[in-house]
Structure formats: C-alpha cells, structure tokens
Design goal:
This protein is of the alpha/beta class. Helices cover 39% and strands 11% of the residues. It has 3 domains: 71 residues, ACP-like (Non-ribosomal Peptide Synthetase Peptidyl Carrier Protein, Chain A, Orthogonal Bundle), CATH 1.10.1200; 190 residues, Rossmann fold, CATH 3.40.50.1820; 66 residues. Strand 6, helix 11 and strand 7 form a beta-alpha-beta unit.
C-alpha cells in the first residue's frame, strides 16, 4: 500500500514507522538516530527502497547519513531551500555514514589540496572542501571576515543541517573554521571537532606589501626562498608573459594558470591577508585541536597560547615537522589525519600532547 502524506508532521510519523519496521523495532521516537539504533548497510538499502515505494521519493545513502532521524529527514524533504553553491562547496568524498568533515580553504582560496587527507581518513567520513568565491567565476569578494564566515556557515548547513559539525582549516581557513564554529555553537548546534592547521587567530601586523604577498603566493612547498629570476619578476605591475614563461620553464605548479586565473588568485591572497588581521571578537566554548608546523626557526610555539586566549575549552597541540607550505604534502597530511582520527575517537587531550601540560 502506498503511504500518502499531506504535511511535514504526517511525513515524520510515516518515517518513524518506516525506521522502526526496517530495524525490526516495536517503536522508535522521531529523534532516534537510525544508525545509532543499529542500522547497517542492508538496513539502509531496505529503508531507501521502502521510502522510494511508499513515499514515492528517491533518496541517496548520503542524504540518510546527513539526516539520520525521522524528524530531520522529514524536515529535509519539506525544505525547499537551495542547496550549496557548487562554486564554493567542493565534495572530495560524498559517501560515508559519519557526519562530514568540512575543510576551509587557505589564502589561495583552493580547497582541492585537502584531497591528500583522504587516503588516511576513515572511508566512512565524508569530506567537503570550501573554496573561495572568485575562483570558479567572477564574484564580489566578502567585505569583512564576518561576511565570509556567515556565507560559509550557510553553505555548510545547506549540505549538513544537523550536527555534529566537524571543521578544519589551514592558514586563514583556521580562523574561518573558528568563526564558523562560534556561529554554530551560538545557534545551539553541536561541534565535535574544530581543528586549525598552521594558523593563528590574528595575523601579525603590518600587512605585507603586495609584492611580498606575490612572493609568498609563488613559494613552492619545501622552499624557503624563490630563485633569483622568479623573485625579480615579483614586481607590480606584473609582466604576465615573462612570469608565465618562467613558471613554465621551472615546472612551477602555477604554470597551468592563465592570466585571469592568476590575477584572481593574487587578488584572493591579498584580500585574505587583509581579512586575517581582523581582531577576534568571540570566544569559542568548545575544544580545539591545534596542528602546528614547526620547521627549524619557526615561531609557531606561541600560536597555541594565542588560541588558548580565545577558546573556552581545552587546546591540544599536534606538532608537525614541516614548513607552513608543506602541511598538506603526503607525509604531514597523514599526521593531520591521524590527529583528526584520534580526536574523533575521544577527548583530544588523551591522544595528543598538550604544550605545557603537567
């Protein structure tokens, strides 16, 4: 018999019945989690089949993983809000039974570098990267850090409206992850992972000159300085023809970019450098995992204390023996993934050493 629904409450009641019958339970509540109640892969397939037949609605396993209770799934089915902007939200791995991990872009605006984490993370952990507006298409950039954090919070909720929420950010992405976590907690939502990677709450003054930002943008992983020719080409206005020829000849990662794309990334770098100096106006009331890049001569030891000043919970440190530009290279990425896995399995202080802890 086909189940007919007239409103969200009816749909919620019918979904509650379907959840219970699929799991062989006499009764379930509207807020019971399908997976916590014992739902396995075969149960997922059977529930999706029954929803398709009896509610005439096709859903994916990912949708069920993101909306695990009858109440939230009914709300999702009744919700006509637009989905996430594909220019901002980059799915690195859609599938998986766990709540997804959202990785916030660094100064370049790119989210794809986070793909190096995938081989080292639980395959049941979906992973999304947030990329900066202005990369895929020309767009007006956010005027303030608050505007940017508001935008990204909305994008995350469009993908995963229910908690728990899991956030990671490298460089300015760490500050943005912090801001997003504060917004989610202020709305009463659960955040069970906040990880910042080689990131500080507020970048130090003064703001670098544009030519220095260009040099930082072109510095390849594993290098402390540009070669003499490339360094000499870091002048404004940019001679794109000579610069591109130099990048091509040296097999630089940015040699593939055309002039428009290169200019857009340079604009993003400068924009993010400015936004990263925004004073912190909030205190995050949860725990934070601080992954530091501690190459010889680095000053990241003080970063942990800076985060402690704006975090109400515990701040645990996981040091990496690499440069800031190398954190998503294969070996450091494996270390970051190990720290995330440990943090998700229990309180972070049990798994990573805290600087200054007794």
């Amino acid at each position: 018999m086909t189940i007919r629904t007239t409103d969200q409450d009816d749909r919620q009641r019918q979904l509650t019945v379907l959840f219970a019958e699929t799991l062989g339970r006499a009764q379930l509540a509207a807020d019971d989690d399908f997976f916590a109640a014992g739902g396995g892969p075969d149960d997922v397939r059977e529930l999706l089949r029954r929803i398709r037949v009896e509610l005439r609605t096709r859903l994916t396993e990912q949708t069920l993983a993101e909306h695990r209770t009858p109440r939230t799934l009914a709300a999702f089915l009744a919700d006509d809000r637009p989905g996430p902007d594909p220019a901002v939200v980059l799915p690195l791995r859609r599938s998986g039974a766990q709540a997804p991990l959202f990785c916030i872009h660094p100064g370049s605006g790119f989210g794809l570098p986070y793909a190096t984490l995938l081989p080292h993370l639980d395959p049941q952990l979906p992973v999304y990267a947030l990329q900066a507006r202005g990369l895929v298409r020309q767009e007006r950039l956010a005027a303030t850090l608050d505007d940017l954090a508001d935008d990204y919070t909305a994008q995350i909720l469009a993908v995963h409206p229910d908690g728990p929420h899991r956030l990671l950010g490298w460089c300015i992405g760490g500050r943005l992850a912090f801001e997003i976590a504060c917004r989610l907690r202020a709305a009463g939502r659960e955040v069970d992972l906040l990880t910042v990677v080689s990131s500080c709450p507020v970048a130090p003054d003064p703001l670098p000159e544009a030519e220095m930002i260009l040099r930082q943008m072109l510095l390849p992983p594993g290098r402390d300085d540009l070669d003499a020719e490339l360094n000499a080409l870091c002048r404004l206005p940019i001679d794109y023809d000579r610069l591109h020829e130099c990048l091509r000849r040296t097999s630089h990662p940015m040699a593939r970019l055309n002039e428009r794309a290169f200019a857009a990334i340079f604009d993003l770098y400068r924009h993010h450098e400015r936004l990263s100096r925004t004073p912190v106006g909030r205190v995050y009331d949860g725990d934070l995992l601080c992954v530091t890049a501690e190459s010889p001569g680095s000053a990241e030891a003080t970063v942990v204390d800076q985060w402690r000043a704006v975090v109400g919970g515990r701040v645990a440190e996981y040091p990496l023996a690499c440069r800031h530009t190398e954190v998503l290279e294969p070996v450091p990425a494996a270390g970051i993934a190990a720290a995330i896995t440990a943090a998700l399995s229990g309180p972070v202080e049990r798994h990573v050493q805290e600087r200054g802890a007794a």
